[in-house]
Amino acid sequence: MGVIETPLDKHFGIDLSAISSTLHAQRVNQKIKIVFLPNPNNPTGRLLDTEQLIEFLDDWAHKPDLLIVLDEAYHEYVRHQAYRSGIELRKKYPQLIVSRTFSKAYGLAGLRVGYFVAPSFVVGLMNRVRRPFNINILAQVAAQAALEDQDFVTQSAIMTWSGLDRIAKELAEYGLQCLPSQGNFVMINAGKPIAELNEFFLRRGVIIRPVDNYGFLTWFRLTIGLPEQMSLVMKLLKQWIEEAGQ
User: Which residue in 89, 124, 126, 211 could disulfide with 216, CB within 3.0 to 4.6 Å?
Assistant: First the structure.
């Protein structure tokens, strides 16, 4: 079993037309069985265009031997008005699979718990191959409690949005490019190979995520944290820019 990758579009988003073209080319031999669509995308933070997504689902979501998975790990942070969740879309496309996690907005990353909504035959297949007791009882209790505390999720999203807006404004003042994000992170162009900046941050106790492994040689991904954490990061970034003579 192999993986077929398609390039992003010019706006760093998932290119659904490229995926459709690949499907048309490969489906002659029925080589493609599952299509994964992260929405929002990681690490670019871009959202799928809703009209294009529905058009794509109209073309492919009814094929009996093809599964389409919408990965909505960052669903709770999306604030784009045109966004439609996969759970809502499943009313029209019942074969659609939607996966979500408690590791982001719910703050339960250490418990490694999430869920997916899928057709019953897919759930049955997953139950055959998953490890027994793969989610421990404490994680299940914590996840249930987290679902009942939607005020926390709302406040988490609001704090993240505030951080994203602040970072975008300050980066513009520094002359650095960042991508508009619908997640809890932002992708930033440092303007030069990222290893030097990564080392600079690591030596000061801050972890960023270089994304040169995706082909973005001068970019890094920064997760939005508490206001005081973001103040430290921006202070260090400004220091690096000044020392680098940018």
Answer: 211
